[in-house]
Write a structure and sequence with these properties.
Helix content is 53%, strand content 19%. By secondary structure, the protein is α+β, with helices and mostly antiparallel strands.
């Protein structure tokens, strides 16, 4: 299976959808900030690993605590994912903090400052 195949894209989308629901409704770890969003998912072609990109709306402490809570709850989230998706292998979950939205907001603010500074 090629990396950018239709099947791989479909699996990435399904895992992202289910992980969003699991994160929002199932994980009860108090360290996970309520404003945490799954922004993207990348599942390897052999379905062994999945990189889950999450965005946390909060300060640095909130981000650190959320990542710690997500890493600690990864086996339970993987179990829930296995019950929801019918895949040959349920991937190991690895979480990565996605700060692209914050960077985009920062750059928009900087551009706005430059435009009004003229």
């Amino acid at each position: 299976m090629r990396k950018n195949s239709v099947k791989n894209s479909r699996i990435n989308g399904e895992v992202q959808k289910e992980m969003s629901i699991i994160l929002r409704e199932e994980l009860k770890d108090p360290r996970i900030h309520p404003m945490t969003t799954v922004t993207d998912v990348s599942v390897t072609t052999d379905l062994k690993y999945a990189k889950i990109y999450v965005s946390v709306l909060g300060d640095e402490h909130d981000k650190e605590m959320t990542m710690l809570g997500l890493k600690k709850s990864a086996p339970y989230a993987r179990h829930l994912l296995a019950t929801r998706l019918n895949l040959r292998n349920t991937p190991e979950l690895e979480y990565e903090l996605d700060e692209s939205m914050e960077y985009g907001a920062y750059m928009s603010k900087r551009i706005e400052e430059v435009m009004h500074g003229r």
